[in-house]
Amino acid sequence: MAFELPALSYAYDALEPYYDRETLEIHHSKHHQTYTTKFNEALQAAGIEGKSVIEILTSLDSIPADKRTPVINHGGGYYNHAFFWECMGPNGGGQPKGDLAAALDQRFGSFDAFKEAFSAKAAGHFGSGWAWLVLDQAGELQITDTHDQVSPVSLGHVPLLTIDVWEHAYYLKYRNARPEWIKAFFEVINWDGVSQRFAQAKK
Ligand code: MN3
């Protein structure tokens, strides 16, 4: 059973003006579709079937070395983008509430301090990649970044929030101004979803 491009839970123009319709449509229907197609090709080449994407990304060592890189690149691209879409929503922005808000305050000092640190990680990432809020193997909140399409699940981390900082994610609207894209991203974060993942991971 081949992987399929996951549908968005909102319309292509639902995140305007922060994330413009044209960028979102191309990002989802072209970029994410290509990762999905090439992920299926990579799995076929490696003789992998019947596994979930999480199972695949957490057992990369079991893939023959000469077949592994396309699975990392396209499997990560498939998973990271599906995760990224869930991090945004039309009624997003603002600040988290409840346990997640308390945990961010405890770990980073305040929501504003978290926002500053996450934004700095995303802005400072060299080249293509992602910035993440994760729970590490010790269950601690960490701000991390990954290169290209490496996924935190392959590192034993539980992802809670991510921003795509590949140029394809923002160049049409924000051109080279990655910090403007990061600022806009905070206006569309679906904090309810982040809180649900945090609660689930803490169980
Ligand atoms: Mn992307």
Give the helix/strand layout.
Layout lengths: L20 H26 L6 H5 L7 H22 L11 H11 L2 H14 L4 E7 L5 E7 L10 E7 L6 H4 L3 H8 L5 H12 L1
Antiparallel strand pairs: 1-2, 1-3
Helix pairs in contact: 1-3, 4-5
The structure holds manganese (III) ion.
Helix content: 40-55%
Radius of gyration: 17 Å
The CATH H-level homologous superfamily of the largest domain: Iron/manganese superoxide dismutase, C-terminal domain
The spatial strand order of the largest sheet comes to: 2-1-3
| Sheet with the most strands, sense and barrel status | 3 strands, antiparallel
Helix and strand pattern: HHHHHEEEHHH
> CATH architecture of the largest domain, please?
3-Layer(bab) Sandwich
Portion of residues in beta strands equals 5-15%
By DSSP, the count of extended strands is 3
Highest-level CATH class of the largest domain: Alpha Beta
Ligand kinds: manganese (III) ion
Q: How many distinct helices? A: 8
What value does the average pLDDT take? Answer: 97
Rounded to the nearest angstrom, the distance between the terminal CA atoms is 31 Å
Q: What form results from the Cα inertia axes?
A: globular
